[in-house]
């Protein structure tokens, strides 16, 4: 096992297993074929063809599309087809910053394979010039990757919330970081990956932030998503990433970026370019 | 004009205008068609087919390939086909860190369209918490992009030299940065682009470094490559990048990465993801 394995795991998928999903002329997602079959029952909302699925053309505004798709999602939920309902809306668009096409319940995002966004915070302290990273362990009841190591703060980006505002909110909920401290976090970039998870295509982009924390800061979780926190030297973080599967899949990507940006990994490594190029795919 | 235009310029190319160039089973470059025609005269060194160019199979070691290709390069130089001879060897491999296949005179690299590597240094100072970037202006007699704005320190990676050692050497030659100061530079990542320049395909990867300089440091150029230096606030750097073509093409890519990593550009920009994803292409 190696750091490269962590990156490869985030890009592994077979696009032929999915049907293109679109709105108007834009292709905006990749749909599970069983989901497409279910949607045949809703011809006034979805046009399911042999080679793609499209939102019905008469749904020609954000509000029409959002309402119609939401009613389908709720029906599929009642039938047990959609599980893990979050009551949280994500905005769907052809790409980041483009015109929003509709809002979608978060639990439905993987079924459509549309682009989703999140924020991840590298919370660290410096001891004698060495960097130590705060790492959380996900609660045992989390639907995705229970018990795995996670960032101090991480969360999906809900509809209508700006990335930095979301980070501040999550920092309070997940690690009790006071607002005035969280506001010192610095945006450092965006990473992207496209992978299969539980039979769905995840097409995610993560906004990464760095926050140097005071030496005496101790995180406390409020929302029950994290079981406990630990502070690890980068050497141990690197070892866990390279030799184990202990970290949640996408956290590995963000931490490898952190190790590169902070000069912990250097171009003298033969795999340096592969690591750096593996942190994103072209949109 | 916009920051995105600077990025797009670094990725613009029409791959169909080139012939694949390879060694053994590996495709390692993209050759200008007129170069391929010239190489038909050297059938003991190059096999020029209708759809690709390969190094002759009997040249089955690094040394054989390097010597045979070098002799061809020198003949093409004498005939005036290759100009701007540098007397500097670059190592050619299928990818970074892979087995070196041969050494190639730097002036020949664009003709073969093989991967080349360089180091770029963001040299900056902090004034009242604001970042100012040292920027050089390329000498009027430079073969590429004379008079354009450039990094404080930048250079190609010659054969057998490690990236950080090359940075230290270039820092002394290009900006008179003492070794003990240059050694504080931190590697921050790798960027890549593939673009057409003067009819050749450039397939470059740049290793980026950050160095915070003392407020009283003033760079002096030793090798004649830089005409003068200036210290600019990031707002002015961003304005020049977004509104002018004053910066050398690839310097824009490295500085946009710097603006992203230091939180000067933020995910609240609608074009943030496109900017971040545009900093590299998958190898």
TrEMBL record, chains A, B:
<dbReference type="InterPro" id="IPR031804">
    <property type="entry name" value="DUF4743"/>
</dbReference>
<dbReference type="InterPro" id="IPR000086">
    <property type="entry name" value="NUDIX_hydrolase_dom"/>
</dbReference>
<dbReference type="Pfam" id="PF15916">
    <property type="entry name" value="DUF4743"/>
</dbReference>
<protein>
    <submittedName>
        <fullName>DUF4743 domain-containing protein</fullName>
    </submittedName>
</protein>
<feature type="domain" description="Nudix hydrolase">
    <location>
        <begin position="116"/>
        <end position="257"/>
    </location>
</feature>
<dbReference type="InterPro" id="IPR015797">
    <property type="entry name" value="NUDIX_hydrolase-like_dom_sf"/>
</dbReference>
